[in-house]
Amino acid sequence: MKIILIGAAGSGKGTQAKLIAEKYNLTHISMGDLLREAAKEDTEQGRQMKEILKTGQLFTKELTLNLIKKKVNNNFENMVFDGYPRSLEQAEALDEVCEPDLVIIIDLPDDVAVERLSNRRQCKACGAITTNEHEKCPNCEGELYQRNDDQPEAIKKRLELFHEETEPLKEYYKPRDMVYEVDGTATREEIFEKICQIIDSA
Questions:
Q1: C-beta of residue 3 within 8 angstroms of C-beta of residue 80
Q2: Average predicted confidence (pLDDT) for the chain
Q3: Is 116 a catalytic site residue?
Q4: What is the layout of strands, in order, in the sheet containing 179-183?
Q5: 147 is a catalytic site residue
Q6: DSSP 46-74
Q7: What's the pTM?
Q8: How are beta strands 27-30 and 120-123 bridged, if at all?
Q9: Is 188 a catalytic residue?
């Protein structure tokens, strides 16, 4: 099974993707993680990617698809896509190598997304996501930091790009009768329960 999770920044799609991957034994493809890892490389491309991440802009379809191909070794089966595709161009590129079975959209109002992202922190040691109410990582006691793409200007840009580039994917996939929507303001447990119902009935 191949599942695409779509949601604005702060919708919790990364958390849900991990839960889905664990429950259904799927490979979790986090485009954000792949891009941040590649941006750490001390190369010209790595430095360019780091700058793009700071501004929240979209990456080219060739670059994103190549990162995924490398991650899965060209085996496009049994996976959940988190943060990909983010544009019609990327969706068309993905269709050339595999067709998704389910597209699940996590709806979240912009004001809620801004509030969540502004308070979000990530652990330098284990990569866990938490909130600014913690001084240390709840998982490993590691140091927490605010990601560049969670800064106010980057958040605004990310949401603008989501509405402009990613929301049209709903109409792109709708004719295939595999698009489902979930309320992103619900609790993590409620969202996961709804998603599991969708997957189990597919």
A1: yes
A2: 89
A3: no
A4: 27-30, 79-82, 2-7, 102-107, 179-183
A5: yes
A6: HHHHHHHHHHTPPPPHHHHHHHHHHHHTT
A7: 0.81
A8: unpaired
A9: no
